[in-house]
Amino acid sequence: MKKVTIDQLEEGMKLAQDVFTESGKLLLPEGFIIKPSLIQKLKEHNIDSVYVEDEKAESYVKEEVIYHETFVAIQDLMLSAKAGEIVDPFVAKEIVNDIVAQIIEEEDVFLRIVGFRDVDNYTYFHSVDVSIFAAIIGKLLELDRKQIEDLSLAALLHDFGKMKIPHEILNKPAKLTDEEFEEMKKHTIYGYQIVKNMDGISEQIAEVALLHHERLDGSGYPLKLKGDKIPLFARIVAIADVYDALTADRVYKKKIVPTKAADYLTKYAGVHFDKDIVQKFLKMVVKYPVGCFVILNTGEIAIVYEENPFNKTRPIVKVVAKKEGPPVLKPYFVDLSQDNKREIIDVINY
C-alpha cells in the first residue's frame, strides 16, 4: 500500500482504503478500480491524496480500453450512417475480434464494465453492451470463434437504423404515441438496408438488424416470424437487447436491477425468447461483480466483497454506509445467501 497525490493517481490503480468527503460521507470504497471519471470526482470533492495498492489492476484496464475503443468506433460509424455517408466497418470488426478474444478466455471479463453509461449516449453504449452480451451467449452455446465474432459484430450493428429515426421520437422523454411507435419500428428496416450495404458484411450479420425484435410467438416485428423461422443470431441478440435495455436508464424509463430483468426474461422464455438461451445467459450474467457498489432494501450501501457461486444474486457484501441515519463507523459483512431479510435493490454507477 502507498499514498499518492491526485495528480499521481493513474487509471487502473486500486484503492487500498475507503475515501471519505470532508463531511465524513463515504465517497469511494476500498477495492475500487480508478477510472478517469473517478479521478475527476475526487478532484470535485477536494481530495488531495489517497491510498492505493502497490500494483495496478492491469486486466481491468485492458477491458476498459477495449470498451472505450468500441464505444468511439460505433459512435463514429453511426454518425456516418446518420449523415448518409458510406460506412466502413473495418475498425468495428477489429475491435469486435478483441472483445471476443477476451470473452473466449474469460466470459465474464466485461461484466464489471457494462451498464456504465449516460442517457444522452444510450444508443452507442447499448450497442457495445449488446455486442458483449451476445458474445458471451455465443461462447455459452459453444459456437466456434468465427461464429462468435460474426454474432458480436451483428449485435454491435443491430441498432444502426435508429440513426434514421427523428431525434424527437428516438429521445422522447415519454411513452411514444401509436403513430410514433410505428415510425420507431422502421429502424429494423432502415438498419438492414444500411448494414447489408457495408463492405464485407454477410447476410447472416445484416439480418440481425432486421429481425432482433421478432418474437417466438409471432408477436414481434417487422415480419412477425415464429419459432425457428427466426435465425439463431437474431434470437440471441433479442435477449441481449432486452436485458440491456431493462437494466439501463433511458430518457423515458429508469433502469431495473438485474434480478428483475431476469424475472422478465424468465417469464417470457419460450413465449417471446428462446428458453434455452435465456437460461444459459441468466446463469452467467445476473450477478454482482466484486467491487461494485449496491444498495440494499434496508437503505444500507455496500460493496460486493465475494460472489456466491450457488446464487450469484446473493453475494457477500461489505456494508460501508447508509442512505439515511447515522454513518457506518465500522464496516461490516453480510452474507446475503444467509440473510433473507436483505436484498439488493440497485447498483450504484460511478
Automatic annotation (TrEMBL):
Gene3D superfamilies: Hypothetical protein af1432
Keyword Repressor: no
CDD domains: HDc
UniProt entry keywords in alphabetical sequence: Hydrolase
Coiled-coil annotated residue ranges, if any: none
Residues in HD-GYP domain copies: 101-297
Mitochondrion in keyword set: no
Signal peptide, first to last residue: none
GO molecular-function terms, A-Z: hydrolase activity
Pfam families: HD_5
Domain (HD): residue spans on this chain: 123-246
The protein's name: Metal dependent phosphohydrolase
Organism: Caldicellulosiruptor obsidiansis (strain ATCC BAA-2073 / JCM 16842 / OB47)
